[in-house]
Amino acid sequence: MAADKGTAGYSDTANQISRDYNFWLDDAFASGGETGYDHKQQGITARGAWESVKRHFRELEQDIESEPFTVVGIGDMGGDVFGNGMLLSRQIKLVAAFNHQHIFIDPDPDPSRSFEERQRLFDNVCGWEEYDSQLLSPGGGIYRRDARTIELSEEARSLLQIEQPRPSPETVIKRILSAPADLLWNGGIGTYIKATGQADSEAGDPDNDDCRVEASQVQARVIGEGGNLGITQKGRIELDQQGVMLNTDAIDNSGGVDMSDHEVNIKILLQQSIRLGELDPENRIKVLKSLTDELVDIVTANNYSQSGVISLESHNSERRLDDYRHLLFKLEETVELNRKVENLPFESSMQERLKTGEGMARPELAVILSYTKMALRQALKSADWSEEWLINPMAKDYFPDRLTRSFPAGLDNHPLKQEIALTRLTNLLVDRCGLSFFFRLTEETGIKIADLVGWYLVGSRLAGEPELFAEFRKTEGRISTEKYFTTWWKLIARLDAVTGWLCNNQNRTLSPAEFEAKFSPLIEKALPQIREVLEGSMEEQDTRFQRIKQKEDFWQEQLGNHRFARLRTRLDYLIPLLDIVTLAEQNEQPVKTTAKLYFSLGRRLHLDWLMGRFIHQHSRDHWEEMAISSLSREISIIQRKLVNQLQTDELNLKQLESCCATQLEGLEKIYRDLEASRQFNFSGYQFFVQRLRKIAEICWSS
């Protein structure tokens, strides 16, 4: 049950009924009310939606914390979402807005003075009629919506691009919605924008048929949907196609629902703590209220992450369109996605987009994001997860840190602990790795998603996640949008490769938790030794490792982010690290000895060069991407097996060259041809790997 001002009383009624019947949820049956969090006081819905707004403007390279920007809006300062939203930046120039009673126009407001007046209205829960007209800029005014006509000033008509001096209120509202503003902030009720040519009946809001506009008329650069159903989905897609930055209402205003979910689960945890003697019942409400600020940070961080992954996917959607084709089929099979209901493109449209190079709209990606999380969450439920290794850490990560430190028994005995943990895990996985990561990888490897996730978690922890991503996010706004999302995609590509390595090469007798426990300390010990081997022979290194060093220098010197530079390099080294450490442990060899042989073999067979080519290649479609990944994994396997063979038989590279001279000569010729070519010749690389297989076969047979 929502915690809005109009329903908070119902929450109390519902919770009292729950208590009267001794229902196990007690007053956690409904969020909000007397003992719950006040959403308006915290402004959580607006603050969550504002994370999307800030991201949109960052990507447009506009800083709304330091630069004035124009806003038009739906709502008034007495309302929760509109009021809180219009107090989130002192640079706001609110030029026009309307609610169900009044129309507000301020053609050229002073950001500071108008902010203070909006704050006064918000504090006193006032509508536009209470705005001090002396603070309006020349030509401003406040008008009733029930008037037959409105006499507008020259400044107001110029702002709203209206020629007639006495337009109707409906005309003025339409022009507010279509005004050339930086931001359109929806904090009200009603559906005001539809797609061009779409019937008003599809909006499902007959009361506003007379003041609704078509997407083609909207001139705002960014739209923030703090309110529900402000735009039809077809309208959102059209707005995206014409360059407007927006998501969907379900993404932007999810903060309120998120906070309600947390409230209910915190209350359940505290009930368990009382039952187990960890908490005095008299202090329960005090503890709940004391967590407010930390909980707000958790919820807004979720909004930040969720809008971020939509931007990530949008950044590269033209190139990944074939992945979306396969993902949509998978979602139809697993979670009954209905493309017609959700206004998602059918196969014929997807094929047309492949031809024209058109990607997915942000509102489409927002819908796919929701279904992807549903499908992944469903797949994760099928596994028998270790409580100590996964369930407990994920459940703990969901709650405010101070709560779990103070009441560990309450968390351990939470009846919904596993459900909470898997939901938290699902959000982390998708928001970090994108929409198709696990579904594409399971198709490529034939390993079910739950198992893939287990090995992904091992790889990500060995890579230093989540610190890696925490440090990476500090670079947002300090580097270009293009550089930021390109780097993010490269992080995902490396995690994909590491996950694939673990699926293919790990000891099948070990579980992910056991593998991590055994090899994590070995890798920590080996990392400085391997860096020493590489740095001690820079003149012999292939360009792949020179690029790694250059990237480390960039992040360290350009941004001063030493920690991210080191973690980023660690991720690039991780597959060689895993190969070397497992081989050294298996063959009882020193790490440095194995590392020298491993890297020397890679240089001699041009494996580092080849892997570098694959990493930086943009595949043409879904199948080529999977084929490239498959070849990359095969190259890693060949290198690993050759090193193992040489160590087992106590051979060196000269002996390998002696028995494979003809094949090596042929490999060298293919390398020179491919190196000289400016185009990515996939058939040529396949032939190169075929020659590698032959060399490996000769080595193994001899």
Structure write-up:
With 702 residues, the chain is mostly helical. It is built from 32 helices and eight strands. It has helices at 8-20, 39-42, 44-59, 80-85, 111-123, 154-160, 169-177, 233-241, 249-252, 255-275, 284-290, 292-315, 321-335, 347-356, 362-380, 387-398, 401-406, 408-412, 417-433, 437-445, 449-462, 467-473, 481-505, 512-535, 543-559, 562-587, 591-604, 607-615, 622-648, 653-659, 661-676, 682-701; strands at residues 69-74, 92-98, 102-105, 141-144, 183-186, 193-194, 213-214, 222-225. α24 (512-535) packs across α27 and α29 (622-648) packs parallel to α32. The protein is globular, with a radius of gyration of 29 Å.
Quick structural summary:
By secondary structure, this protein is mostly helical. It has 32 helices and 8 strands.
Q: What is the terminal separation in angstroms? A: 72 Å
Radius of gyration: 29 Å
Which segments are poorly predicted (pLDDT under 50) over 5 or more consecutive residues? none
Global structural class = mainly alpha
| Total number of strands | 8
- Give the biggest sheet: 6 strands, mixed
| Shape label | globular
> So what's the oligomer here?
single chain
Return the average pLDDT rounded to an integer. Answer: 91
How many helices in DSSP terms? 32
- Share in helix: 55-70%
What percent of residues are in strands? under 5%
Looking across the biggest beta sheet, what order are the strands in?
A: 4-3-2-1-5-8
